[in-house]
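Suppose you are handed a protein chain with no further information: no name, no annotation, nothing but its sequence. What can you learn? This example shows the usual starting point.
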Amino acid sequence: MNGRPFIVGHPHGTPASRESKLIDQTQASIFRDRVLTPIAIITTVIAGLVAVFAILAWELRRGRAWRAAARLGSSWVLGIVPAVYLARLFAFHHHGVGLYYAFVLGLGLVLAVAYDLLGRRSFVDPTLLGLAAIVGLLCLDVVTGARLQLSTAFGYTATIGVLTLDNTLINRAVVQNEFRAAGDLVDRVGGGAGPGGVKAVAPTGTESITIAIPEAELAVSLLGEKLAVERIDGPATYTQPGRPIAVVSNVMLEYRPGPPPKPVKAAPAKKK
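A reasonable first move is to predict its three-dimensional structure. Written in structure tokens, the prediction is:
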């Protein structure tokens, strides 16, 4: 096996605070997994309506209303993209999907109106402004650490389950990440035909997960349930048996004994 040695770093915060942070990150990942496909569907529907409006505007020749709708709709699609990234700044998993959709669609519509107002001199100016806004936001995000691009609704999600030996689900965990460069890889596996003799397949994305095992269970199993990938040509979900879903490493078990039993007070001796 190839890899890097495990290094124990300096701990930050109390165990309770670290556990609370891991639980919150897991809930946020599960939330992003829920909104992944709906956001892609909504964007596709709006793009389809834009195509219909454009056809009607072309066929009717004088259909100014259809032309305006097609122009605003195309700007709306471009506005949704930065809105999805900016939604990463807020903890919407604490407030529900309704507020998330309202933020993404509302901000996308506000940006679409701004693109149309600033680019009203030419029919293509709103599109150029929308594309420039996306590129500018991504460049700024890369310079500041790429916090908006990782684990957004345009991403990659692996879902695993922890089960008992009789296949009873104890809990689920989610890992999300995006691969953009070789530096995003966790490790490289030797023995392949790639550059440097490494394999073309490599793990990417790390996330610490904590799951409490019931006291009565002596053994558990890990099941890779599904892998959701958001690609340029659309979302794809893989659930085939035998397909690698996630790589588990650095497994640690922590035993927390219960409180000691209270001492039983001896009954007072009876006086004769």
